[in-house]
Write a structure and sequence with these properties.
The protein is an all-alpha fold. It has two domains: about 50 residues, Orthogonal Bundle (Arc Repressor Mutant, subunit A); about 140 residues, Tetracycline Repressor, domain 2 (Orthogonal Bundle). The protein is built from ten helices and no strands. Helix 4 packs parallel to helix 8 and helix 9 runs antiparallel to helix 10. The longest helix is centred in the first third of the chain and has 26 residues. The radius of gyration is 19 Å and the shape is elongated.
């Protein structure tokens, strides 16, 4: 018995197809027709879900942030100790349903593409604030032990995200001098400087 795909299934297929087409043709050069065809849909099916390519991109970025928040909250529920949480985060595999989690260069390109349109920047700001709140909640909720708790989790979250984004960009530009573990090394150094870990 054949069943029609759900709206979520259609969106997921369009996200995956768009990621492939964007990587092959570039975001600016990719057409709605090419994205729909790569997903196995008609142009009409695309427009029944998204009004434009820009709206698709915003939805992909939103989906990426939502999946990231969900994964991190699930881990935090299992690991209240910050060291345990960080170890679990390092070991966590990227979700197969998150194309931007698997393609950091495309993720960065999409952010810059949206940021070029001033009217779209509030959409990005909303996602950035959600990421900051997640990290701040993790820092505030994790049991750091002793009197040396983070005084301003929101500021610490902004620093953590700036480090993550910066090292991601540096690794894409110059992977030979930017090892994959640089972000985690920087987090370890930061925690030691703040007296949050021993050694």
């Amino acid at each position: 018995m054949r069943t029609r795909p759900t709206r979520d299934d259609t969106r997921d297929k369009l996200f995956e197809a768009a990621a492939r087409v964007f990587e092959d043709q570039g975001i600016g050069g990719a057409s709605i027709e090419a994205i729909a065809a790569a997903a196995g849909f008609t142009r009409g099916a695309f427009y029944s879900n998204f009004a434009s390519k820009d709206e698709l991109i915003i939805a992909m970025l939103e989906d990426h942030v939502e999946q990231s928040i969900r994964r991190n909250l699930d881990l935090l529920a299992e690991h209240t100790d910050l060291d345990d949480f960080i170890a679990a985060l390092k070991a966590m595999e990227r979700s197969r349903r998150d194309p931007l989690g698997r393609a950091p260069l495309l993720h960065m390109e999409m952010i810059l593409y949206v940021a070029r349109a001033e009217k779209r920047r509030p959409e990005l700001a909303k996602r950035l604030r959600a990421r900051r709140k997640l990290v701040a909640d993790i820092l505030q909720g994790a049991q750091l032990g002793g009197p040396n708790r983070i005084q301003d989790p929101s500021w610490a979250a902004a620093v953590v995200l700036a480090l993550e984004d910066g090292f991601r960009l540096h690794r894409l530009i110059d992977p030979d001098t930017t090892p994959a573990d640089n972000f985690w090394r920087a987090i370890g150094d930061l925690r030691r400087a703040m007296g949050l870990v021993s050694g």
